[in-house]
Amino acid sequence: SLSLVSHALLTAFVPSPSLPPMPGTPSLPTSASPPPSCSSNRLRAIKIPTVSFSPDELNTTAMGEFGDYIRKVFPAVFSAKFIQHEVIGEYSHLFTVQGSNLDLQPYMLLAHLDVVPASPERWVVHPFSAEELDGFIYGRGTVDNKNSAMGILQALEFLLRRNYRPQRSFYVGIGHDEEVSGHKGAIKMVDELEDRGVKLSFLLDEGSVILDGVVQGIKKPVALIGITEKGAMTVELSVEQDPGHSSVPPKETSIGILSAAVFKLEQNPMPNRFGYGPEIMTFEHLATEFSFPLNLIMTNLWLFSPIVSRILQKNPTTNAIVRTTTAVTMFHAGIKSNVIPPSAKATVNFRIHPSQTVEEVLEIVKNTIADERVKIELVDAFDPLPVSPWHDQALGVQIFRQTLLDVFPDVGSIAPGICIGNTDSRHYRNLTDAIYRFNPVIFKQDDMPRVHGLNERISVKGYEKQVEFLFQLIQNSDIEKLPEPHSDFHDL
Ligand SMILES: *[C@@H]1O[C@H](CO)[C@@H](O)[C@H](O)[C@H]1NC(C)=O
Ligand SMILES: *[C@@H]1O[C@H](CO)[C@@H](O)[C@H](O)[C@H]1NC(C)=O
Ligand SMILES: [Zn+2]
Question: In this protein, which residues make up the domain named Peptidase M20 dimerisation (predicted)?
Answer without folding.
Answer: 228-373
